[in-house]
Amino acid sequence: MSMSSSSNQFIFSSKQAANQGARASVCQKLPTTKARVSSLLLLLIHLSSSFVLAYRSPNVHPTHTTSRMRRQTSQIILPLVLLTLLAVEQTAGFLLPTACMSNRSRRAAAAAVASPLSFSSKHQPVPNALTRLRATTEDAKAVAAASNKAKAVKDKEAAEREKKEEKNKPTAAASLAELGKYDVKRVRNFSIIAHIDHGKSTLADRLLESTKTVATRDMKAQLLDSMDIERERGITIKLNAARMLYRAKDGEDYILNLIDTPGHVDFSYEVSRSLAACEGALLVVDAAQGVEAQTLANVYLALENDLEIIPCLNKIDLPAAEPDRVQQEIEQTVGLDCTDAVRCSAKSGIGIEDILETIVARVPPPAPPTGGPLKALIFDSYYCPYRGVVVYFRVVDGEIRPKDRVKFMASGKEYEVVEVGFMTPEKRTVDVLRAGEVGYLSAGIKSVEDARVGDTVTNAKGGASEALPGYAEAKPTVYAGLFPVDADQFEVLRESLGKLKLNDAAISFEPEKNSAMGFGFRVGFLGLLHMDIVQERLEREYNLDLIVTAPSVVYKVISNKDEELLVDSPAKLPPPTERKEIQEPYVRVEMLSPTEYTGALMELAQDKRGELKEMKYLTPTRSALIYDMPLAEVITDFFDELKSRSKGYASMEYSLTGYRENDLVKLDVRINDEEASPLACIVHRDKSYPVGKALTEKLKELIPRQMFKVPIQACIGGKVIASCAISAMRKDVLAKCYGGDVSRKKKLLQKQAKGKKRMKTMGRVAVPQEAFQAVLKLKTGPQK
């Protein structure tokens, strides 16, 4: 009896152990026994309190009996339902623990109960721990394996994420300078020069992306072109700079300072100062279009600054690309050795690594510091409303730190440096910039004119005695009048030009009064593109509606007293009796085109008073024409005619060569015997008649008819060289005459003529603004 009871007790304990092991391994989320007993006690307490509250003997009105019974019933039924559910759950948890087990756990628990180890034989005693292990080992292994697998997956994802962030993390060469590891021998300063639309900005984007200077998530097309106009037109107007850190194949880290330059001839001075801050240049040539006019101009500027030029044939992935032909064309035209020219595609990312390695290998490092005072070359500046003028410069010698007092040698202004740093292209501050580095400084400068492009920065005390060579003030070459459509916006235009001049020191303006358009400003520009950009910025950024007069150049007038006068408007030209001669600016124009359009371009240049200087064949299929011609003929419609006659294949570049004396006259326009000064222009005497004839005929079309006859005359002094008339609007005064004597009709006609004559003496003709604008665009255009 005792043996039987002991064996049953052990079997029960084995079952209980298996149940507990399975329940502990699989049903870990179920409440523990203590928690279940506590929940049961709480429900019992709540139920008893509900009974007490419901069936105590309250003194209530009989009418409230029904509502009181409903409330008591709800207080009793809800705890009873909860108590029943809890009891069922507790019973299932204690008596059926395998219900929440997996199939494998159920089989293990059943095997533990039905096994011979349950003391069917007294010679094989097994401890309770072995049974528990058998029931739980398999599930423990499965859970551990799943946990390890999930952890491995998470670790792998974290490693990939960290690797990707490290890849996209911008690198900065500042750490080398800050940690004292800066070495001038591992600095490379270079620029990118190219013709318009040859892929210069795209190549700069690929270089920034390849060196991980800019994170992938922050990359966008034309990253260095910050203005909306630049992105829309695909040209670079405002130059920019960026510092890159590149680890070459030799294992060394190199600092690459990229200075992006404008590509248009109007900004040739800014390009020359940018190239002066470099030791090398990438000459980017389109493998499909070949050498263009601006390509040659930029190469000449680079050669003047003694730079190492690296030819790069871009867009080699285009179907029309001919890299072999273009390479031969560069050698014959420019004279560069293109044996090691890099063939690349900035859009596809082909050859970018080769370009970086070539820069490291061929571009020489900056000259080592001599220990002398600070010398830094300014190559750009702009106005910030919060920090004042921010100056971009390259340190030639010495070093610059915050709180240093510096002097701008050309303007003579002195300022205390507030902040120095470099661009990536985002600005990053550093403690010091040394010789050979490119960076920026802010010193609370109020005007861009105090820190002009090309100026030299040195120490205020013990600074350099001589400035760096090459500085010149930007002088406007083209002038035009800007007038607001609404006269009330004159003050707004004045403020807008003042704010724009804070960022562009090349702009000059002065008030001007025009009898046709009221008050405005006479504004000077570097060229036609510069004028177009300024006009568009005024209209976009300041919400102005403007009328722009026809551009004119600056003439030199020698008076009878041998005084030299600069005249930028026909209204300022002295009368013939007070002047000896008039000189106009001349430019050297270089046109490149396919050979089949050479004849058409020569005819165009001859019509514009051009003088042929040289004609050469770059290749059997491309020719170059070099002319000297007046700037006044170039700034009108010369470029449009060039593209029209060459079907878009020709390109041009020009540079000022000086002033020449010519037989120039002032062509006045009279409307109804009144001089219209806004329509006056300065032309060559030989072209005065065709220009005057075209002016009068165009005005006849655009001025509305009056009640009297309006004569329109083009005059040189008091001599009329071309004229036409707008006929009067006449009333048919003979309509009421059905017959009778002819004297009756003559009397009516004579009466009408007297009225017209009196009206002509009293009436005035107003030239509409639309007609004035159209005439200004055409007044020097007609040549035939």
Task: Please describe the structure with a list of short key phrases separated by commas or semicolons.
784 residues, alpha+beta, 6-stranded mixed beta sheet, 20 helices, 25% strand, globular, disordered N terminus
What does this protein structure show overall?
This protein is α+β, with helices and mostly antiparallel strands. Helices cover 37% and strands 25% of the residues. It contains 20 helices and 30 strands. An eight-stranded antiparallel beta sheet has the order 10-9-14-7-8-13-11-12. The chain has a six-stranded mixed beta sheet with strand order 2-3-1-4-5-6, sandwiched between helices. Strands 20, 21, 22, 23, 24 and 25 form a six-stranded antiparallel beta sheet that branches. Residues 1-32, 52-65, 94-106, 108-130, 167-180 and 779-784 have low confidence and may be disordered.
- Supply the helix-strand structural class: alpha+beta
Number of strands: 30
Q: In oligomeric terms, what are we looking at?
A: single chain
Average pLDDT for all residues: 76
Sheet with the most strands: spatial strand order: 10-9-14-7-8-13-11-12
Beta-strand percentage?
A: 25-35%
Helix content: 25-40%
Number of helices: 20
Large-scale geometry = globular
Integer-rounded radius of gyration: 45 Å
Largest sheet report: 8 strands, antiparallel
N→C terminal distance: 138 Å
